[in-house]
Amino acid sequence: MERRLIWLLLVAIALRLVLWASSTELYPDEAYYWDGTRHLALSYSDHPPLLVYLAYVTTALFGQSELAVRLGP
Prior knowledge:
The protein has four helices and no strands. It has helices at 2-23, 28-36, 49-62, 66-71.
């Protein structure tokens, strides 16, 4: 019984996060990462490059959407 409750709670949290992430606009930093996915570089002057690389991978896998940008970072 406890396992079912834990799984139900985890599924509800994941669903809520997906719905929230897909319904709100991108923050300026997230838009910066998304723009960086089109111009990959070894380093960036004001943000760590790993976040841009993660956004690149998730947008390549899940398409060019706000949700895909948020999945990586």
